[in-house]
Every structure is written in structure tokens, then in C-alpha cells.
Amino acid sequence: MEKRQQLYAGKAKSVYATDDADYVVLSFRDDTSAFDGEKVEQLNRKGEVNNKFNAFIMQTLSGAGIATHFEKLLNETESLVKRMQMIPVECVVRNVASGSLVRRLGVEDGMSLTPPVFEFFLKNDALHDPMVNEYHIATFGWATEAQVQKMKQLTFEVNTVLKQLFADAGMILVDYKLEFGIFGGEVILGDEFSPDGCRLWDAQTRKKLDKDRFRQGLGGVIEAYEEVAKRIGVTL
Ligand code: CDP
């Protein structure tokens, strides 16, 4: 497999073509952004930590029967993934209230949510990723009804697997964001799963171990990511 030209550069990852039209290289950079790209910093080692963290999670999910784009780790900061047609919505599941849910609805931060809440957001930084529902997705043709159902089903399956994985390591999976794409006509999990796109709290102390440390200027961001990785058994 040969790495070719850059196809796309996102806020934290870049995508490169390969000599195989079905595969691309995901390159995890140290750039860290928040507030739709308004706050950006370089955090040493983040690309490597997230690349390895994501590989571990994607392999765990794949082992649980959830189809993902992940193929293999290539090096410290890069992974080979299937080239998908991305669905332009983000799927969020919340087990505990925090972040935008608290701001939007005025509920208490840290409140346990039963059943968990599911939300769709449109991927659009200029519009600040507005919340959308299944009618918007159908009307504007972002995904078919069957694809919407599949994304919801897979996002909840991920919750079952990962809530347990983090609980076993003394953490609470507060919420997380997933992105899906289409490969060979099927909806599969894409993008990444890392502390950049979820909230994780220590189960005993409720210490934040995720990107909220960066958003809120709490410091120790990478140290927290490494701690999470170590607890769940990721080899760094
Ligand atoms: O992060 P913020 O409070 O603005 O938004 P949220 O709706 O509370 O985010 C829910 C979860 O999705 C958190 O774990 C975020 O880290 C994640 N998320 C993300 O990874 N990317 C986004 N564009 C929006 C949310």
C-alpha cells in the first residue's frame, strides 16, 4: 500500500489517498480544537495517543460485531481505513447530562439519563453543528430512513460495549459522538473514537478525563488521555 496525495485536512486529522481506491490513510495530528475551531492548540503526543486509542476501540467494536472503517495501524500516528462516503450528520448518545444538553435544557450537570438520550447534529462548523432531527435528514437527503435507523441502532450497540469497557476500568462514559459512512452499500462506523469526541469521568471522583480539560483550560489534557488509555489496556 502506497500513500498518495492529501485529500482532505480536518481540524485534528488529515486524509490521504492510497494506490487502492477503497482505502485511505487517516493521519492523526497534534492539533486540538474546540468551539468549532475557534480555540486551536498543538498538544504534544496527541496524534499518537488518539491513533492508538482509536485503533483499540475500533478493534473492540469490530470484535463485538459492529462494522467499522478501521483496517490497521500503519505507524505511530497513521491508520489505514476504508474509504467511505460520509453521512454528514453526527450521532450523539448521552448517558449523563453535560455540555450542550445542560446549556440547552437547563438540566443538572451530572444527572444520570435513563433511558440514554440520542441526538443528531449536522456536520457544519459555519453553522455551529446545529441539532437536527430525522425529518431534516430525510427532507434534505442527508441519509435514507433505513440508514438513519441503522445509525441509531449501531450508536446504541456501541454504547452497550463501551459503557461496560469504561466501567470495568473505573470510568463513566458520559456521552460520545459517532460518525458513519457508506461502504459497499452498508452503513459502517467511521471517523474516530477517542477522548476528543467523548466525555469520560473517573467513576469515584468524577474527574474529567477527556477534551473538556482542553475546552475548560483545566490542563493535563494528554496526561488524562494517557491515563484512560492505560486503564483500558491500550499499548502506547
Ligand atoms: O461539546 P459541547 O458541549 O459543545 O457539545 P455536546 O453536544 O455536549 O457534545 C456531546 C458529545 O459529543 C461530547 O462528548 C463531545 O465531545 C462530542 N462532540 C464531538 O466530538 N464533536 C462535535 N462536533 C460535537 C460534540
From TrEMBL:
EC numbers for this chain: 6.3.2.6
Catalytic activity: 5-amino-1-(5-phospho-D-ribosyl)imidazole-4-carboxylate + L-aspartate + ATP = (2S)-2-[5-amino-1-(5-phospho-beta-D-ribosyl)imidazole-4-carboxamido]succinate + ADP + phosphate + 2 H(+)
Molecular function (Gene Ontology), one example: phosphoribosylaminoimidazolesuccinocarboxamide synthase activity
SUPFAM superfamilies: SAICAR synthase-like
InterPro entries for the chain: SAICAR_synt/ADE2_N, SAICAR_synt_PurC, SAICAR_synth, SAICAR_synthetase, SAICAR_synthetase_CS
The keyword ATP-binding belongs to this UniProt entry's keyword annotation: yes
Keywords of this entry: ATP-binding, Ligase, Nucleotide-binding, Purine biosynthesis
One of the record's GO cellular component terms: cytosol
GO BP term (any one): cobalamin biosynthetic process
Family named by the database record: Belongs to the SAICAR synthetase family.
Protein name: Phosphoribosylaminoimidazole-succinocarboxamide synthase
Organism: Methylophaga frappieri (strain ATCC BAA-2434 / DSM 25690 / JAM7)
Name of the gene this protein is made from: purC
